[in-house]
Amino acid sequence: MPPRIAQIRLVSSHPQVYAPCDDSFALVDALLADRTKLLDHHPSICMEIGSGSGYVITSLALILGSESKNAHYFATDLNPHATEVTRQTLEAHGVHAELLTTNIASGLEKRLSGMVDLMVINPPYVPTPEDEVGSSGLSSAWAGGENGRSVIDKILPLADNLLSEKGWLYMLFLADNDPLQICLQMRDKGFGAKIIVQRSTEEETLHVIKFWRDPDIQIEGNEAVSGGKTAPQRGFDFLRSQISRLSFRETRQ
């Protein structure tokens, strides 16, 4: 029997709340692809930043299910309508999360510092004028500013602060966001990275990338002196080739 995820017919809605779409489905597909690893990971605190309709955080709670009965879930959103819609979606599926109407994770930085074992984020990634970023209502779900990076670049340092030593981050990016540069930026903070799902639609190319704290990255500089490439270096070379090939195909089309 396949694992349960949120049912669209039970997902609540509001005119000012982003409904589940291709990006939402890609993020949940990434969680499904990693389900066995997630269950073995035994996360105690799980968090979604930007919950929107609640489709992703609800799906995560259902994917982990009773095998992670001690897990505690948090979900935040800047849009108060989204917080309410998320609550309704969770209740319709019989699962629970602590909900906060806040900007990214404001108010949780100290409370959850170094405690989040699993984080999922579908950020505002669409390139837009900067004055659209953080606006009220529906546009706050997608307006990402220059190169779609304005909100993303604020989220990443917060994620670094909130994630535990065994913390995993699943985050969705548009090709225009330069995901390779983001991976290299996270590498400088000691994170490994892997593409879990990559998907092309008529309008966009999406990448769901998993980040984790990689102790090997912290010592690879010493190993590199000997001349050979370390495992993290080889991994990032492979990641670079994955992203480059997909972007090249999209350019040719």
Tell me the helix content. 25-40%
Strand order of the largest sheet: 3-2-1-4-5-7-6
- CA radius of gyration: 18 Å
Number of E-type strands: 7
Cα shape: globular
- Summarize the main sheet: 7 strands, mixed
For the terminal residues, how far apart are their CA atoms? 39 Å
Give a short overview.
The chain is α/β, with parallel strands linked by helices and 253 residues long. The protein has eight helices and seven strands.
Describe this protein's structure.
Mean pLDDT is 88; it is low at 245-253. The protein has helices at residues 22-33, 35-41, 55-64, 80-92, 152-162, 179-188, 215-224, 231-252; strands at residues 45-49, 72-77, 98-101, 116-121, 163-174, 191-200, 205-213. The chain is built from 8 helices and 7 strands; from the N terminus they run H-H-E-H-E-H-E-E-H-E-H-E-E-H-H. The protein has a 7-stranded mixed sheet, sandwiched between helices. Strand 1, helix 3 (55-64) and strand 2 form a beta-alpha-beta unit. Helix 1 (22-33) runs parallel beside helix 3 (55-64) and helix 6 runs antiparallel to helix 8 (231-252).
